[in-house]
Amino acid sequence: MTVNALGIYEKALPQDLTWKEKFNLVHELGFNFLEFSIDESDERLARLDWTREQRADFRNAMWETNSRINTLMLSGHRRYPLGSADPAIRAKSLEVMQKAIDLAVDLGIKNIQLAGYDVYYEKKTVESREYFVENLRKCVEMAAKKLVTLSIETMDDPFINSLTKIAHYKNMIKSPFLQGYPDLGNISAWPENNVAEDLENNLEDVAAVHLKDTLAVTPTFKGQFKEVPFGEGCVDFEGCLRMLARLDYSGSYTVEMWTGTMADPVGEIKKAKRFFDDLFAKVGIAQEAIAD
Predict the structure, then answer these.
(1) What is the pTM of this model?
(2) What is the tens place of the pLDDT at every residue in 217-246?
(3) Rounded to an integer, what is the distance from CA 103 to the centroid of its chain?
(4) Phi, then psi, of 34 in degrees rounded to 5
(5) Contact, 151 vs 209, CB < 8 A?
């Protein structure tokens, strides 16, 4: 039996709580950690410029509640992509990364999830891919200096939608500080992926795992990559988790939800927690004990 930490994404929680209230709620709901978000909104990008006092207040709330954050989820690069045709945007993308690394160090976060897009809103080209590779190398160098791991997430985008593709970039940029962050929903939604082989062949690259359900891409449907109720999508969670347990995967899992603005986010989280508690028991995964 493997023992794994289970976390919850920040955007799943009610959004009107203080940090101390959020951390306490994470424990009350039966999770080991919170996954912190720096998305493309002005509000969350502003966290990159928190003052020393704001960072200290956040750390104190975390320490007082005996909490931790395993991953900083950096989706802000959708707005400022590493592969942009605009040199000013590329420069901003590197600035965002450096600030994220410095914030992670100050908050005690060891892993930054990097969105696997060359560009998001722009047209994809061979050049956008080249800029992505060039700037990814710079980002890894920045992170290595501070001993922070960058983990590329498998995405809702064909640019990087499998661990096999992440392994290709790791082969070009050889560093222990560049890893993969598979999203079980995203890799399952793409029909070209053999999910079992993708996980088995690349387990050594996996820093953490996202638990999310999706609806598969078909010739007539672009797929649905968010807000699919657990158990109603295309992900074979029991099969994936049973395999990860067999492979002795000991990293963390994060339940990825966006229920924070719903009428009853706590009720939705409890429902998801029961879903994964049952699966963990069936496949032989024990959850790490919750900190007091």
Answers:
(1) 0.95
(2) 999 999 999 999 999 999 999 999 999 999
(3) 17
(4) -110, 140
(5) no
pLDDT > 90? residue 18: yes
292: pLDDT strictly greater than 80? no
The answer to whether 117 touches 74, Cβ cutoff 8 Å, is: no
Alpha helices in 65-108 (DSSP H): 87-107
Query: Phi and psi of 264, rounded to 5°?
Result: -135, 70
How far apart are alpha carbons 195 and 163 in whole angstroms? Answer: 9
- Mean residue pLDDT of the chain comes to 97
Is there a contact between 76 and 101 (Cβ–Cβ < 8 Å)? no
Number of other residues whose CB lies within 10 A of the CB of residue 223? 18
pLDDT of residue 274: 98
The answer to whether the beta carbons of residues 83 and 121 sit under 8 Å apart is no
Could you give the CA distance from residue 146 to residue 156 in angstroms, rounded to a whole number? Answer: 29
Q: Which tens digit of pLDDT belongs to each residue from 179-191?
A: 999 999 999 999 9
Q: What's the Cα-to-Cα distance from 271 to each of 23, 275, 289, rounded to whole Å?
A: 19, 6, 20
Which residue has 């290595």 as its token pair? 144
Closest C-alpha to 148, from 92, 54, 74: 74
Phi, psi of 209 (to 5 degrees): -130, 130
**What is the DSSP annotation of 152-195?**
EEP-SSGGG-SHHHHHHHHHHS--TTEEEE-BHHHHHH-TT--H
Q: Is 117 helix (H, G, I), strand (E, B) or coil?
A: coil
HSE at residue 161, side-chain half, CA atoms within 13 A, is 17
Confidence label for 291 from pLDDT (cuts 50, 70 and 90): confident
Name the one residue in this structure whose structure tokens are 């890799």: 187
CB 93 within 8 A of CB 81: yes
